[in-house]
Write a structure and sequence with these properties.
By secondary structure, this protein is α+β, with helices and mostly antiparallel strands. 18% of the residues lie in helices and 28% in strands. It contains twelve helices and 26 strands. The strands form six sheets. It has a seven-stranded mixed β-sheet with strand order 11-10-9-22-23-24-25.
């Protein structure tokens, strides 16, 4: 359910919210069309989307859009599909069939009925539909389409995971956040060219910027960037601090309604956090999403998540375990640190031998495999990775330079995770397709071991001679209207 304040007063958030308490979570506002944070020599009109203020582009319509496929708790047998139409579409209908080469998919399809929630924005009143898919057969190719007003979407295909472990590839992305269609889109497209049969797309938060009343345009560009992929490849999102906002007189942030509208996650997390904390088992890998924003603004909610996490880790039949959340356990960028996460969550990662911890927030790249705590039961703790997929770029800290295995600045990246019975191969690629970092995590009866395979290339550093801030390489909002270099 949406919080009552959004149902009663959607204009309160749609017209723009001033963020309070930003120092707590280390974020800054990024406007859609105001003066950029930059030195006079490089000042340009800032923009966070490609939308012109006098030319609306993403108004709601009777046609189904923003179609998204999310796995259930057991992805081999359950899933959720969400999509958006305007409010003229009052029924949430989906047709589902086992996929065949014949175009007559409708002759074998069964019709499923779901529900919808309303959401107002400057782009109009929308109905966000959601339908549960249950009793799916493992390792089976399905086709589905969703209903608009007297029309349907295209048919989407997805293959359910096997019931037990079977090798496959997943994709992991750090923050997109700014200039999503303009700059992030190339990263996600290159990722699919690199791993065209990926089964999972995992996001470590800050999918959009959610600032200054342009939320719906930003989400529209997110779905334009991911395109058909969002409806055909299992989506595993974690909420970041930019999926939250706050009122002028209330420093505690609340989850913005677009997140709930677009993402019907598995819903098996703690009751107070079921919109953002969940787990899904996908073909022998348990993916666990935590809400680090809530953990950092409430010690109680950090503990609540820890209690839930211990149960999920202690009763885990899967071969591999991946935890993902927005704020890093071990920060990479200058001036950032998140001690509550290390206090409440890291001991559990070590105790239950979590394999990978995937994060965002720092707008840099960092990878560390020697961060096990004193309570670790295995000499090799989880491998921690922090990455960034969009154009907002920070600088790495001296601490990170002293402790991390591989670092990077000023680089848009995506990561592939190749799961095998006895090993996981991790590769980080730049948005232009070059290998930037790699390792193999081996798992044997004697324990885990990391084989470092990073290429013998120099670590990338900030190339911007006019940094907008001492700790920042690019704002992310200073790129869409930046002029070409002088010839």
């Amino acid at each position: 359910m949406l919080p009552s304040q959004f149902l009663l007063s959607p204009v309160a958030w749609a017209s723009g919210l001033v963020l309070a308490g930003s120092a707590l979570l280390g974020c800054s506002a990024g406007p859609n069309s105001v003066a950029a944070e930059a030195s006079p020599a490089q000042a340009v009109t800032a923009a966070n989307t490609l939308v012109l203020s006098d030319q609306p582009r993403y108004q709601v319509s009777p046609y189904p859009e923003r179609i998204t496929l999310l796995p259930g708790a057991a992805a081999s047998s359950s899933a959720q599909v969400t999509w958006r139409t305007n409010s003229s579409v009052t029924e949430s209908l989906l047709q589902l069939a086992v996929a065949t080469p014949s175009p007559g998919l409708h002759t074998q399809a069964k019709q499923l009925i779901g529900r919808s929630i309303k959401l107002n924005s400057p782009n109009g009143e929308a109905h966000h539909h959601r339908v549960q898919l249950s009793q799916l057969q493992p390792d089976t190719l399905y086709a589905y389409r969703v209903k608009g007003l007297n029309t349907w979407s295209s048919w989407h295909q997805f293959k359910t995971p096997a019931a037990d472990f079977k090798p496959y590839t997943a994709l992991y992305f750090g923050d997109a956040q700014n200039a999503v269609l303009s700059h992030y889109a190339r990263t996600v497209r290159e990722a699919l060219l690199t791993a065209p049969r990926a089964k999972v797309m995992l996001y470590a938060g800050d999918l959009v910027n959610s600032r200054d009343g342009v939320h719906d345009d930003e989400w529209a560009e997110w779905f334009a960037a991911t395109s058909w992929m969002a409806g055909s490849i299992y989506q595993l999102p974690a909420a970041g601090n930019h999926e939250f906002s706050s009122d002028d007189d209330q420093p505690i942030r609340y989850l913005l309604p677009h997140w709930v509208a677009h993402y019907e996650v598995a819903g098996n997390g703690p009751e107070a956090l079921s919109d953002t904390v969940y787990y899904s088992d996908v073909q022998g890998v348990r993916y666990i999403a935590l809400d680090s924003t809530e953990a950092l603004q409430s010690e109680q909610l950090a503990q609540v998540q820890a209690q839930w996490l211990e149960q999920v880790l202690a009763n885990n039949p899967n071969r591999w375990t991946v935890v993902f959340h927005h704020h890093p356990m071990h920060s990479v960028s200058m001036g950032r640190d998140n001690p509550p996460l290390r206090k409440y969550w890291q001991p559990l990662y070590d105790k239950y031998q979590v394999d990978l911890v995937l994060q965002g927030h720092d707008h840099t790249y960092g990878r560390d495999h020697q961060a096990a705590s004193a309570t670790a039961t295995d000499s090799q703790g989880p491998v921690y990775a922090v990455s960034v997929a969009g154009p907002k770029m920070y600088l790495v800290s001296e601490q990170a330079q002293a402790t991390m295995d591989r670092l990077g600045e000023d680089t848009q990246l995506f990561q592939t995770l190749e799961f095998h019975q006895d090993r996981v191969k991790y590769q980080a690629f730049t948005a232009t397709g070059e290998l930037y970092d790699a390792f193999v995590l081996h798992k044997t009866a004697a324990g885990k071991q990391v084989e470092d395979l990073q290429p013998a290339t120099a670590e990338r550093r900030c190339s911007n001679p006019n940094k907008p801030k001492p700790h920042r390489c690019w704002n992310g909002t200073d790129l869409i209207h930046a002029p070409a270099a002088a010839q």
